[in-house]
């Protein structure tokens, strides 16, 4: 299901690239029509504890575009590459109050706020523009579905957790506008381009 949605989005993105007059990104997700209005899925309200032991809600991201992902600090596989690539976006848009970043830890047992804080500092994050959050398994894993990201606790895989490495681009209305493989250099460059395109919508 998730793969098919992203494949469809990729096709739409490719088509959009061929249409030079089109500068709008697609809205990803199954839409429905209610009384003649097209309704797209959105990221629901949430509250999580961040790296500073402060409750962070979705309100923090109001009137911003943001990039979200799911990771854990001692991940031995895709996370280091994914987070280093997301750091490139953070560095490009640092101090731009129109843009934010949100990393959800899927290791609800180990990744307490002080662990997330240490991780963020070592990564090179030194302001509140990039938030790192933790929460209960039910809340974090339940929300990952809304971002169309696969997450699973699995003792058979390295690190004990399995997840996809998408960087998910969210607009002002909390709708998904793009998803990019955070381990792929070309995909990350596409993310940076699409962030610029999305910001143009709000000028």
The overall pLDDT, averaged over residues, is 91
Q: Give a quick account of the main beta sheet: strands, pairing sense, barrel closure.
A: 7 strands, mixed
Strand order of the largest sheet: 4-3-7-6-5-10-11
Alpha-carbon distance between the two ends: 34 Å
**Could you tell me the radius of gyration in angstroms?**
16 Å
Q: Helix count? A: 5
Describe the 3D structure:
- By secondary structure, the protein is an alpha+beta fold.
- It has one domain (42-202): Glutaredoxin, CATH 3.40.30.
- It has 5 helices and 11 strands.
- The chain has helices at 2-18, 79-93, 113-123, 137-146, 185-200, and strands spanning 32-34, 37-39, 47-50, 55-57, 65-71, 99-105, 130-134, 151-153, 161-163, 166-170, 176-181.
- The protein has a 7-stranded mixed sheet with strand order 4-3-7-6-5-10-11, with helices on one face. A two-stranded antiparallel ribbon has the order 1-2.
- β3 (47-50) and β4 (55-57) form a beta hairpin.
- α2 runs parallel beside α5.
- The longest helix has 17 residues, at 2-18.
- The chain starts with a helix and ends with a helix.
Topology:
Layout: H1 2-18, E1 32-34, E2 37-39, E3 47-50, E4 55-57, E5 65-71, H2 79-93, E6 99-105, H3 113-123, E7 130-134, H4 137-146, E8 151-153, E9 161-163, E10 166-170, E11 176-181, H5 185-200
Parallel strand pairs: 5-6, 6-7
Antiparallel strand pairs: 1-2, 3-4, 3-7, 5-10, 8-9, 10-11
Helix pairs in contact: 2-5
Briefly say what this structure is.
This protein has 203 residues and is of the alpha+beta class.
